[in-house]
């Protein structure tokens, strides 16, 4: 009998999928639960439940260190925030899970892989494209996308087939979380006029109820990667976990985003990402010190492209490989220490220092010790404004002061106020 490897979370959808795949496709199901640091599940219980439902094998892989080293840190170095807001927690985990699915499929001699994504979300694209790139010979089965059962129908199916579930209670929200962040959607959140209630949040305290005492955290970076908190060096998993706790108790990391999904719809998403928000801000402030003007401005465009690429499921694309090489090169001088002030949901820059800082006090100061050559400015201004002055003398000569001022008036570019050339 042929085998399929199912990405198994232990929830309702994937639990029902074990039995459903067996019935519809007549395939043995091997489940794979990938630990990306969600910390909301008993993985051993999940493994045992998969076997009880009917899986021929149930595997659990701890990939938290790989997740940080090969996915989270490169995205942080890139400054990748989808549409400037979302730290891409779920999007970054999907290609890693897909990679493990393919590896297990090879090890088990499977001819297919399966996942529990719906037909209108982004995750189906991330899984399918990743698997197609890594192993185009493997068939992809997406039960939830195929069966179109409602939640009540799934619960009834589970009862009829004696499928053990953790809980059959109706959930108000759909939640996905991993080491880098927590995503919440559906229920009352689908109406953007509804303010999220406090029950939505688990990692962050209510900022309005925090004391009037700020907390300072010192973050040390090496080549754009955080390596220490408050002078204590630690591995990436520990650093992120500790920073989640520190920033979360100050209400930092809440994001309410109307985002543009890849499939063409707008979706209201709530995110909690305390560590990600703090680290992205601190990293950007350190780059302000260490990147040249041109490099910093170009990198903002790279960051946007990188964020889109990750969000759209193109992690294993040649473009990502090329952008990753640029990002790594851009980080060779991004080392130093940033101290942030955490206060009532806000991340405030307290200080920033780097041995490779391009900030030159002697050039920047207006006090004693100023070494800037003021007399050179006259020649610079003359050359910098040459083309504009030349245009003024040739094309704008003879215009009155009022006419010159009207050139910058909103009426000058209003569609209801045609230009003199159009009028003629």
Automatic annotation (TrEMBL):
Keyword Ligase: yes
Assigned EC number: 6.3.4.5
Positions of the Arginosuccinate synthase C-terminal domain: 173-389
Residues reported to bind ATP: 7-15, 116
Known catalytic reactions: L-citrulline + L-aspartate + ATP = 2-(N(omega)-L-arginino)succinate + AMP + diphosphate + H(+)
UniProt keyword terms in alphabetical order: Amino-acid biosynthesis, Arginine biosynthesis, ATP-binding, Cytoplasm, Ligase, Nucleotide-binding
Matching Gene3D superfamilies: Argininosuccinate synthetase, chain A, domain 2 (3.90.1260.10), HUPs (3.40.50.620), Single helix bin (1.20.5.470)
Record-linked PROSITE patterns: ARGININOSUCCIN_SYN_1, ARGININOSUCCIN_SYN_2
Top-level taxon: Bacteria
EC category name: ligase
UniProt xrefs under InterPro entries: Arginosuc_syn_C (IPR048268), Arginosuc_syn_N (IPR048267), Arginosuc_synth (IPR001518), Arginosuc_synth_CS (IPR018223), Arginosuc_synth_type_1_subfam (IPR023434), AS_cat/multimer_dom_body (IPR024074), Rossmann-like_a/b/a_fold (IPR014729)
UniProt-listed GO biological process terms: argininosuccinate metabolic process; L-arginine biosynthetic process; urea cycle
Location of this chain's protein in the cell: Cytoplasm
Annotated positions binding L-citrulline: 86, 122, 126, 174, 183, 259, 271
An example Gene Ontology CC term for this record: cytoplasm
Pathway the protein contributes to: Amino-acid biosynthesis; L-arginine biosynthesis; L-arginine from L-ornithine and carbamoyl phosphate: step 2/3
Start and end residues of each Arginosuccinate synthase-like N-terminal domain: 3-164
Main location: cytoplasm
GO molecular function, one term: ATP binding
Residues involved in L-aspartate binding: 118, 122-123
PANTHER family, sorted: ARGININOSUCCINATE SYNTHASE
Family: Belongs to the argininosuccinate synthase family. Type 1 subfamily.
Subunit description: Homotetramer.
Name of this protein: Argininosuccinate synthase
Source organism phylogeny: Bacteria, Bacillati, Chloroflexota, Chloroflexia, Candidatus Chloroheliales
């Amino acid at each position: 009998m042929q085998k399929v490897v199912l990405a198994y979370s232990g929830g309702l959808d994937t639990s029902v999928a074990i039995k459903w795949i067996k019935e519809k496709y007549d395939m043995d199901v091997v489940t794979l639960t990938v630990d990306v640091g969600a910390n909301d599940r008993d993985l051993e219980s999940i493994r045992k439940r998969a076997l009880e439902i009917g899986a021929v094998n149930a595997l659990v892989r701890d990939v938290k260190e790989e997740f940080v080293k090969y996915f989270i840190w490169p995205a942080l170095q890139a400054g990748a925030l989808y549409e400037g807001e979302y730290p891409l927690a779920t999007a970054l985990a999907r290609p890693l899970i897909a990679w493990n699915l393919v590896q297990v499929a090879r090890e088990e001699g499977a001819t297919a892989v399966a996942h529990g994504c719906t037909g209108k979300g982004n995750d189906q694209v991330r899984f399918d494209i990743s698997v197609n790139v890594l192993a185009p010979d493997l068939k992809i089965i997406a039960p939830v996308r195929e069966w179109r059962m409602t939640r009540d129908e799934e619960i009834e199916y589970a009862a009829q087939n004696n499928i053990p579930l953790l809980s059959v209670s109706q959930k108000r929200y759909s939640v996905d979380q991993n080491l880098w962040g927590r995503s919440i959607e559906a229920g009352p959140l689908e109406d953007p006029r509804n303010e999220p209630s406090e029950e939505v949040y688990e990692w962050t305290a209510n900022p309005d109820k925090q004391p009037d005492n700020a907390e300072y955290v010192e973050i040390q970076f090496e080549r754009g990667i955080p390596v220490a908190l408050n002078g204590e060096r630690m591995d990436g998993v520990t650093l992120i976990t500790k920073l989640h706790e520190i920033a979360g108790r100050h209400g930092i990391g809440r994001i309410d985003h109307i985002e543009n999904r890849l499939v063409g719809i707008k979706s209201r998403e709530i995110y909690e990402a305390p560590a990600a928000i703090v680290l992205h801000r601190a990293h950007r402030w350190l780059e302000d010190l260490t990147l040249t003007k041109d490099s910093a401005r170009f990198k903002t465009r790279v960051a946007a492209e990188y964020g889109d690429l990750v969000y759209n499921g193109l992690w294993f694309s040649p473009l990502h490989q090329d952008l990753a090489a640029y990002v790594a090169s851009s980080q060779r001088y991004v080392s130093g220490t940033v101290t942030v002030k955490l206060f009532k949901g806000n991340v405030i820059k307290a200080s920033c220092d780097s041995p490779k800082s391009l900030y030159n006090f002697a050039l920047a100061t207006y006090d004693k010790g100023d070494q800037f050559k003021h007399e050179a400015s006259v020649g610079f201004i003359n050359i910098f404004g040459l083309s504009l002055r030349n245009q003024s003398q040739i094309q704008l000569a003879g215009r009155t002061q009022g006419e010159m001022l009207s050139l910058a008036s909103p009426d000058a570019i209003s569609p209801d106020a045609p230009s003199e050339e159009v009028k003629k």
